[in-house]
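Why this split exists: single-chain examples teach little about how molecules sit against one another. For that reason, every record in the complexes split bundles all components of an assembly together and asks for one structure covering all of them. Below is a record exactly as it appears in the raw files.
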Amino acid sequence: MNRISKLLSVTAIVAASSASATELEVMHWWTSGGEAAAVKEFADAFNGTGNTWVDAAIAGGEAARAVMVSRLTGGDPMGAFQFNHGRQAEELIEAGLLRDITDIAEAEGWKDIVNPPSLLDACTVDGRIYCAPVNIHSWQWIWLSHKAYDDAGIPVPSNWTEFVAAAPALTEAGKLPLALGQQGWQQRGLFNVLFAALVSNDVFLSVYRDKDAEVAAGAEVAAIFGAASDARAMAAGSTVQNWNDATNLVITGQAGGQVMGDWAQGEFAVAEQVAGEDYSCLPGLGMTELLSTGGDAFYFPVLNDDAEKAAQAELAALMLKPATQVAFNLKKGSLPVRGDIDLSTANDCMQKGLELLSSGALLPDTAMLNTPDTADQISTLFVEFFSDPTITAEDAQAQFVKIIENAE
Amino acid sequence: MADARPSQLFRNKSAKIAAIPMIVTALFVFVGGTAWTIVYSFTKSGLLPRLKWVGLDQYERLWSTKRWIVSIENLMIYGLSMLVLVFVIGFILAALIDQKIRFENTIRTVILYPYALSFVVTGLVWQWILNPEFGIESIVRSWGWESFAFDPLYNADIAIFGVLIAGLWQGSGLVMVLMLAGLRGIDQEVWKAARVDGIPAWKTYIFIVIPMMRPVFITTLVLVVTGIVKIYDLIVAQTGGGPGISTEVPAKYVYDMMFQANNLGQGFAASTMMLLTVALVVIPWAFLEFGGSKKRG
């Protein structure tokens, strides 16, 4: 901690030399406890440069995105805003509303430090860089409750196959085998995790990146739909809505496990659970150990005021400095975007993630490959699939193929 | 000429000036906005409106999307049931209150009160009441009827009726008050005459009073129907469209397409279809109602 604050002050002093007190409005949707603490690290660091961070937080990603887009298209741009990088911002860039920050990226040498490079690729359109990636979130985790398995008298599974095999014993012990929130994005997420973990990456990429409908109709994808229907049977008693309510079922031992991104870790931390003792995490469901590299990024709208432009540049550079990266990501529970910094204070699960990151067992995130439109169609499909056991895996796959065919 | 008889245009000058803002709003915002939406529904607009023509593609996709079909079906089921039941319940309540009962003010307030709550509150309250774990089902079970089951919101086949219950609870009060006002507007002499002729009360209501209340019925109908077509917040608060997609409605489809799926073209196509549906009902009715009365007048 000491070292962090020292580093922070060093950055502050260095940056202060070019300081000019400019107010910059920054919009984001980080409003939960851990998220707010993390974004405060950015704000403090930015204020340390002599500028002023004007915080404009809007709860809920969807609500926030709607406001951001209407502000941008309405000609009232903010100083900077958070987005999930990937295809969401594509059209804003095409419309020329976002600032090209290639010069800053080059001056700071982002090409060499951002790991994995796909993060920067997701910010790049036609060779120009438009966003500053700040963290990595990965979806491919299953969180297992030791209490649930102890109560049922069976060992904690170490991969998805064992997890499925253990389901009847859990049901007998009055537990829910799989906790799943009844919201489309969670159900789609579960499917995509199965997709990434159960078959080879080539299949995943040819369906989602190359939009190959033939592969999507093939036997390998059929196996994933089979696994999804196993998951549906295991989650049949799960009536909760929010992801953190589902996580809570795992924390309290009422459910065996939950497939959810690394942000679930925050819930375990708040409940004072210890990784490896109270709960286990298996990246890639214990089948194919890999992570997808989604995450958050900041975009900078085109502004006219020179002082504000300078402040934007300072903020962009600051966000990727080692000190801010460490401080921010420890609070957020996400992985840093640069591989050259020390995160020895991170817990077990985070360490596993860091190892995978450095070994390069990575997949691009679906948000970088699919448009929000395609993602929404897939969500609707899985909302139906998980709520209605009469839809067979074959029917669902046929609909999935249709979505992939029409996707761009 | 002009001095002798002021032009028709300048009569009631102040009234016309006062109406200008509304006329401008109606023309530019409503008519203009509607035209714009229809034009862009033939384009491939994503996050931002773009004039990339795709013909009827958006409509083809719309009508081959199961979620949209389900939405339309739900609106039909909800709309028809709501329309019939809210009128029946509202009128019966009004007729009962009209019997010169004691504490009329109190009862009227109690029944109208739900209307003062927003749909979001209504939706949440009924979500809890209909929740099997701590709502009606658990209460009845705690009384000893162990096998009692009442969980419409968790059964995809009847979930829309769970929403209907909430809608009725919220809307009946308003219909009752309007009907009551209508009933009070009926001359007492009519009742006396009917009584002298020995016509039973229910017949008086159906054959004499209700036809006399036509204007009130039309006002109420317009209020109720617009409320039905734009239903959105109740669904979002109560079921979120679930379980599955069993309580999706068109307005929610439009919103989700525009702001979640970043597919404006699809959202515009869906909202144009909603407008078309309303127009198909309203235009013939308006012709009958206003076109006819002019001739009579």
